[in-house]
Amino acid sequence: xxxxxxxxxxxxxxxxxxxxxxxxxxxxxxxxxxxxxxxxxxxxxxxxxxxxxxxxxxxxxxxxxxxxxxxxxxxxxxxxxxxxxxxxxxxxxxxxxxxxxxxxxxxxxxxxxxxxxxxxxxxxxxxxxxxxxxxxxxxxxxxxxxxxxxxxxxxxxxxxxxxxxxxxxxxxxxxxxxxxxxxxxxxxxxxxxxxxxxxxxxxxxxxxxxxxxxxxxxxxxxxxxxxxxxxxxxxxxxxxxxxxxxxxxxxxxxxxxxxxxxxxxxxxxxxxxxxx
Length: 276
Prior knowledge:
AhpD-like
């Protein structure tokens, strides 16, 4: 990944966990696992507490349909890692009810909410579909919030799939229901906004809040954070190298990237929920 700390900066318990699971599965831990276990007290805890019920809790949408919506969000953000991963999860969780390669065969309600979520991912200002139950739209928005964050981070940090990771990783993720063992997680705020924007960290809350909105952010952060929010697929190795060359640490880049991704995702989520 573009930040070396995401590959080798983990706590001892996380390194042991990834080492054991890697030996058992025969493949190294995917980049998404490394990201979530790098600093679990920052972002990870509230994000996972959103993700597990959104993707595998009770819902108007089946597990396969939610994976399909996640795949659709990945296409909006042009995230190859996420598109391939959620296409495979759609097949695993859908049990044949939905084919990611043949979306026209899905139930009409799914296609309606899919189009709505694609608009939400881009601007978050459109009115929700009125021919769906409000709770169904809210549940779909929860799915969309999670992956609007993760897709931006996957693009910014340069997630890649190694040989063998797709089949093994998706099966393990589905089997675990998007939950991680408790001993891998750290204490920290349970609220997403507080975790990312308010708690003490390597960067100031003021910088992280500015990264989330773009308001009052100075260079070299301004252009980079704007890319994370609006066009994460365009981020390159050089963009990250420039920040490091300017004297910023990898942990500072990590926190500002997370703040920009979460801020953009919450902006569209809040606007769409307001429409309900």
